[in-house]
């Protein structure tokens, strides 16, 4: 029934970026079977072009690419204000690449080899989280704390009336923090609430996104006033007076 409803509504478009033809073909087949529209490219430069022209709903982005690697593709898109959800794919087991990918704006990460079913499930999860976030925030109105103001239903955030730019996941995390002001939230709680599933127990993803938020909203990231670290537990967003 869910797939029928998706077919009746506008199909979600997935941009597949991988230099291996066999992987592109495999992902195209399985995503089309799951009722997604697909566009695929083999190098980083074309990935940036297609992301701008095709406006996909999600990008599956390989890390190792000719002309421009996945990190640079992701960084370029975010710098241009393109906030399409990105799932990075890599055959490398280097944890540094994983953290770096998340730091520059990827929303999720998968290591090869993976099953096509696993990829489809992860795509559905990321798209569902994006949709659920919009639904949860509709009608919630403005949330403010000191000079920081967030408009969830308009996907807007302002600090001292200057508009801020966030990736979808950063924005969702900020909204969740502000909806739970002065509450101590564990990393596992944040994983469950914002990422909506257990990201292999990897709470470093939370730390990376909190670090990114602090760079954008804190005057001094070493002495944050909004997002405080609660040692051994997690984080707390402290209410600020106007």
Estimate the helix proportion, in percent: 40-55%
Number of E-state strands: 12
Overall body shape: elongated
CATH superfamily of the largest domain: Response regulator
Supply Rg. Answer: 18 Å
Mean pLDDT: 83
Count of DSSP helices? 9
- The CATH topology of the largest domain is Rossmann fold
CATH class of the largest domain: Alpha Beta
Named at the architecture level, the CATH assignment of the largest domain is 3-Layer(aba) Sandwich
Succession of helices and strands? HEHEHEHEHEHEEEEHEHHEE
Distance between the termini: 49 Å
- β-strand amount: 15-25%
How is the main sheet built? 5 strands, parallel
Low-confidence sequence ranges: 1-9, 132-139
Strand ordering within the main sheet: 2-1-3-4-5
Structural class comes to: alpha/beta
Number of domains: 2
Walk me through this protein's architecture.
- Helices cover 44% and strands 20% of the residues.
- The chain contains nine helices and twelve strands.
- The N terminus is likely disordered.
- With 242 residues, the protein is of the alpha/beta class.
- The strands form three sheets. The chain has a five-stranded parallel sheet with strand order 2-1-3-4-5, sandwiched between helices. A four-stranded antiparallel sheet has the order 6-7-8-9, covered by helices on one side.
- A hairpin with a 3-residue loop joins strand 11 and strand 12.
